[in-house]
Protein backbone atom coordinates (compact mmCIF):
# COMPACT_ATOMS: atom_id res chain seq x y z
CA UNK A 1 0.00 0.00 0.00
CA UNK A 2 1.33 3.42 -0.93
CA UNK A 3 1.47 6.29 1.50
CA UNK A 4 0.14 9.61 0.24
CA UNK A 5 2.56 12.51 0.70
CA UNK A 6 1.21 16.00 0.06
CA UNK A 7 3.36 18.81 -1.28
CA UNK A 8 2.88 22.55 -1.61
CA UNK A 9 1.51 22.30 -5.16
CA UNK A 10 -1.22 19.73 -4.39
CA UNK A 11 -2.71 21.42 -1.30
CA UNK A 12 -6.25 22.77 -1.70
CA UNK A 13 -7.15 25.38 0.88
CA UNK A 14 -10.62 26.41 2.03
CA UNK A 15 -11.75 29.31 4.19
CA UNK A 16 -13.75 28.64 7.35
CA UNK A 17 -15.47 31.05 9.71
CA UNK A 18 -15.95 30.17 13.39
CA UNK A 19 -18.35 31.93 15.74
CA UNK A 20 -16.69 31.92 19.16
CA UNK A 21 -19.79 32.92 21.15
CA UNK A 22 -19.97 30.97 24.39
CA UNK A 23 -17.13 28.55 23.60
CA UNK A 24 -14.32 28.07 26.17
CA UNK A 25 -11.02 29.55 25.01
CA UNK A 26 -8.94 26.38 25.18
CA UNK A 27 -11.48 24.22 23.35
CA UNK A 28 -11.83 26.82 20.62
CA UNK A 29 -8.06 27.17 20.27
CA UNK A 30 -7.44 23.42 20.01
CA UNK A 31 -10.07 22.93 17.29
CA UNK A 32 -8.87 25.96 15.30
CA UNK A 33 -5.24 24.83 15.60
CA UNK A 34 -6.22 21.41 14.27
CA UNK A 35 -7.87 22.95 11.20
CA UNK A 36 -4.92 25.32 10.64
CA UNK A 37 -2.59 22.34 10.77
CA UNK A 38 -4.74 20.31 8.34
CA UNK A 39 -5.48 17.38 10.65
CA UNK A 40 -9.13 17.38 9.59
CA UNK A 41 -8.16 16.34 6.03
CA UNK A 42 -7.38 12.85 4.76
CA UNK A 43 -4.35 14.32 2.97
CA UNK A 44 -2.64 15.39 6.22
CA UNK A 45 1.14 15.26 6.02
CA UNK A 46 3.08 16.21 9.17
CA UNK A 47 5.94 18.03 7.40
CA UNK A 48 3.75 20.02 4.97
CA UNK A 49 1.37 22.89 5.70
CA UNK A 50 -1.89 21.34 4.45
CA UNK A 51 -4.22 23.41 6.63
CA UNK A 52 -7.03 25.79 5.78
CA UNK A 53 -7.65 29.46 6.53
CA UNK A 54 -9.74 30.18 9.65
CA UNK A 55 -11.63 33.36 10.55
CA UNK A 56 -12.71 33.65 14.19
CA UNK A 57 -15.49 36.18 14.87
CA UNK A 58 -16.98 37.35 18.19
CA UNK A 59 -13.77 36.79 20.11
CA UNK A 60 -15.05 39.12 22.82
CA UNK A 61 -17.70 36.51 23.68
CA UNK A 62 -15.22 33.71 24.41
CA UNK A 63 -15.64 32.15 27.85
CA UNK A 64 -12.96 31.43 30.43
CA UNK A 65 -14.08 28.88 33.02
CA UNK A 66 -13.42 28.92 36.74
CA UNK A 67 -11.43 31.78 38.24
CA UNK A 68 -9.16 32.22 35.23
CA UNK A 69 -10.27 35.83 34.67
CA UNK A 70 -8.63 36.80 37.97
CA UNK A 71 -5.91 34.15 38.42
CA UNK A 72 -4.51 33.70 34.90
CA UNK A 73 -2.04 36.20 33.44
CA UNK A 74 -0.80 37.02 29.95
CA UNK A 75 2.95 37.61 30.23
CA UNK A 76 5.31 39.17 27.70
CA UNK A 77 8.74 40.74 27.71
CA UNK A 78 9.53 44.15 26.25
CA UNK A 79 13.14 43.31 25.48
CA UNK A 80 14.59 45.65 28.08
CA UNK A 81 16.14 44.66 31.40
CA UNK A 82 13.40 43.97 33.91
CA UNK A 83 10.80 44.32 31.17
CA UNK A 84 8.54 41.41 32.07
CA UNK A 85 4.94 42.63 31.90
CA UNK A 86 1.80 40.79 32.89
CA UNK A 87 -1.88 41.51 32.33
CA UNK A 88 -4.73 39.68 34.05
CA UNK A 89 -6.96 37.83 31.60
CA UNK A 90 -9.99 39.74 32.87
CA UNK A 91 -8.45 42.99 31.62
CA UNK A 92 -7.05 41.35 28.48
CA UNK A 93 -10.43 39.90 27.50
CA UNK A 94 -12.08 43.28 28.03
CA UNK A 95 -9.55 45.22 25.94
CA UNK A 96 -7.81 42.81 23.51
CA UNK A 97 -9.85 39.61 23.30
CA UNK A 98 -8.58 39.04 19.75
CA UNK A 99 -5.01 38.85 21.09
CA UNK A 100 -6.05 36.30 23.73
CA UNK A 101 -7.55 33.99 21.08
CA UNK A 102 -4.59 34.50 18.73
CA UNK A 103 -2.03 33.64 21.43
CA UNK A 104 -4.01 30.59 22.58
CA UNK A 105 -4.07 29.17 19.05
CA UNK A 106 -0.41 30.07 18.46
CA UNK A 107 0.58 28.13 21.58
CA UNK A 108 -1.03 24.97 20.17
CA UNK A 109 0.84 25.01 16.85
CA UNK A 110 4.33 23.60 16.23
CA UNK A 111 7.18 25.75 17.49
CA UNK A 112 9.15 25.88 14.23
CA UNK A 113 9.04 27.50 10.79
CA UNK A 114 6.05 25.35 9.82
CA UNK A 115 4.07 26.67 12.78
CA UNK A 116 5.00 30.24 11.89
CA UNK A 117 3.50 29.82 8.42
CA UNK A 118 0.38 28.15 9.84
CA UNK A 119 -0.44 31.01 12.21
CA UNK A 120 -0.50 33.42 9.26
CA UNK A 121 -3.70 31.71 8.07
CA UNK A 122 -5.61 32.78 11.19
CA UNK A 123 -7.75 35.93 11.31
CA UNK A 124 -9.41 36.98 14.59
CA UNK A 125 -12.08 39.70 14.93
CA UNK A 126 -13.80 41.07 18.03
CA UNK A 127 -17.18 41.63 16.43
CA UNK A 128 -19.41 39.64 14.09
CA UNK A 129 -18.16 41.33 10.91
CA UNK A 130 -15.10 40.37 8.90
CA UNK A 131 -13.67 41.56 5.60
CA UNK A 132 -13.19 38.18 3.90
CA UNK A 133 -16.54 37.75 2.14
CA UNK A 134 -14.80 37.51 -1.25
CA UNK A 135 -13.20 34.20 -0.17
CA UNK A 136 -16.68 32.69 0.45
CA UNK A 137 -15.89 31.16 3.87
CA UNK A 138 -17.89 28.16 5.04
CA UNK A 139 -19.20 27.95 8.60
CA UNK A 140 -17.19 25.52 10.72
CA UNK A 141 -19.18 23.79 13.44
CA UNK A 142 -16.88 22.92 16.33
CA UNK A 143 -19.38 21.48 18.83
Quick description:
The protein is an alpha/beta fold and 143 residues long. The chain contains five helices and six strands; from the N terminus they run βαβαββαααββ.
Spatial order of the strands forming the largest sheet = 5-2-1-6
CATH architecture of the domain at 15-64 and 95-139: Alpha-Beta Complex
Under CATH, the topology of the domain at 15-64 and 95-139 can be stated as: Ribosomal Protein L13p, Chain: A
Report how far apart the termini are. 35 Å
What's the name of the CATH homologous superfamily of the domain at 15-64 and 95-139? Answer: Ribosomal protein L13
Query: H/E series, N to C?
Result: EHEHEEHHHEE
- Indicate the proportion of strand residues: 15-25%
Q: How many strand units? A: 6
Number of helices: 5
Please state the CA-atom Rg, rounded to the nearest Å: 17 Å
**Low-confidence blocks of residues:** none
* Mean of residue pLDDT values: 95
Describe this protein's structure.
The protein is an alpha/beta fold and about 140 residues long. It has a domain at about 15-65 and about 95-140: Ribosomal Protein L13p, Chain: A, CATH 3.90.1180.10. The protein is built from 5 helices and 6 strands; from the N terminus they run βαβαββαααββ. The strands form 2 sheets. The protein has a 4-stranded parallel β-sheet, covered by helices on one side. It has a two-stranded antiparallel sheet with strand order 3-4. Helix 1 (about 25-35) links the parallel strand 1 and strand 2 (about 55).
Amino acid sequence: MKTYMANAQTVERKWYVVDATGIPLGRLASKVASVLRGKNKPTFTPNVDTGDFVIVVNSDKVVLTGKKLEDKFYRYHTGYIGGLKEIAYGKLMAERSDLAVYEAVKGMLPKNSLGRTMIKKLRVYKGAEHKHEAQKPEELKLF
